[in-house]
């Protein structure tokens, strides 16, 4: 297995690579995997490698114009205490996209990164 096989990778298009790196490393426990450049950086958390592609990156340039806006897809991160995470992130000024929602599987809330990409924080039921 090579290093790339250790991770499941998701690409997020971002407007500002350093701001995205700061958001994911400061607020969500990701670690910087490669030194950020104006066009690209990647961060990791467990088996997830998040590819942060700025406007000049090849990943962003390959995206058709009608699909360039953030979509309804999102990264799903499991947390132990959703209320504590909400309090911590609100105190840090992280923008929320709605209020917490509860269902049979647990509770969740959506936050947005600096480019508007969604991240779901999820606390399983029980």
UniProtKB/TrEMBL annotation:
Superkingdom to which the source organism belongs: Bacteria
Domain VOC: 6-124
Gene3D superfamilies: 2,3-Dihydroxybiphenyl 1,2-Dioxygenase, domain 1
Name recorded for this polypeptide: VOC family protein
């Amino acid at each position: 297995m090579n290093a790339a096989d250790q991770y499941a990778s998701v690409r997020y298009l971002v407007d500002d690579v350093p701001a995205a790196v700061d958001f994911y490393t400061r607020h969500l426990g990701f670690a910087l995997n490669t030194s950020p450049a104006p066009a690209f950086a990647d961060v990791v958390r467990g088996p997830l490698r998040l590819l942060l592609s700025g406007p000049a990156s090849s990943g962003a340039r390959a995206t058709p114009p009608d699909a360039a806006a953030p979509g309804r897809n999102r990264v799903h991160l499991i947390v132990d205490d959703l209320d504590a995470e909400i309090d911590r992130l609100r105190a840090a000024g992280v923008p929320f996209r709605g209020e917490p929602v509860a269902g049979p599987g647990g509770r969740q809330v959506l936050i947005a990164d600096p480019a508007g990409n969604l991240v779901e924080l999820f606390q399983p039921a029980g």
